[in-house]
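Q: Protein A?
A:
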Amino acid sequence: MNSPDNISHQNTSLCVIGDTHGHLQLALCVAARWQQILNTPFDAVLLCGDVGTFTDESQLDSTTRRHARSNPCELEFLYQWSVTPQPHWLARIFTPTTQNGLGLTCPVVMVHGNHEGFTHLAGLITDPVPAETIPISNLPAVDSAGYIRYLPSGWKCHTRSGITIGGIGGIESGRRRAGYHDLAYINDQAVLHLLDSDPFDILITHQGPQVNQGEHGASILDLIADTEICRYWFHGHSTPNMAIEKFGPNLNTQIIPLGDIAFPAKRNTPDVPGDNGWCRLTLGSDETITRERPGFWRDFRKSKWRTLPNGQLLSPSLSDTLRQGNTSQHTKP
């Protein structure tokens, strides 16, 4: 593979998604549909934490348990993505459209939030922080089939087209006294490692910096905005300020807050996917940021999902797989 510096960013699009809270079918089926409508394959799908990567019920925190009582999608990773073998319908998300799949053949990369299966994620970090930017394919796999890759704090990776991506997971320590695993909190050394590295294109974090989110942001992350080490910065978590703004001495770092995409537990519209959690970044001669709930979102209302015998939900895009049996050969990102 060529080094990232030698690869053009011309006409490259990425999909970035806010907090998923287990709603991986929702996130990835919407991403697959979006790229088909745009007729533009994504270079990668990036997830800004709170993915809900629980692999055992003992890892569940109280908040996730509470939301899961009314919304089984909160535990989707536990019962569908972490098991071996995975339910056959998940493979169809990543199967090319020429083989009757949804066509999301690009890599999916996540940073961790503060609602994760931390015992599982901690076991994936067996190597020290790489000194160089590595291919996404070298990141540890999170799910049992290897579709989702984990970008640990302080690491940087690059896509096939050469887009460079850095990551910082977790929230600032001291903000919540919920007995979280140490990994749930921002690692200051990982932040400093990124600051000492070469500039990169995209940063994905779970929490935002104080410079744009005030008391809901992390003060240690303000250092990244001040140094302009990255061009585009996406984050989720608590986002009272949803404005897309530029920061740094020369305004060279653009920060894009993203909302929660989960079906709400306590709203007047529990059937509707979250808003402001979907973003498309196009890099090239005409760089654009499009943060919107895609126009076809009504096709993914919770009432359109199929309830399985075990109580879990199946996306409308995948419902017909139960009638088709096992999917055809698929391509892993």
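Q: Protein B?
A:
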Amino acid sequence: MSDIAIRVDLDEVKRQADATAEALRALRLQFDLAQFEFTRDVRIAPLEIPHSHPVLTMNTRCLGRPDALLAVYLHE
């Protein structure tokens, strides 16, 4: 193994995760979703398949498609 360090750039992944989180917050302000929510903890994991347990986890694939993001959120 080499001792030479490499730089890993995760800026785009972070930007997409932040944008997804912000879009989800905007949808929650636009719609009264309280009756459908069972948790306030949401994890944004760009490459994972959305799932609800043990933590509600969403990916960034619905970025730019609010209707799809809302559908995934409500489904999970």
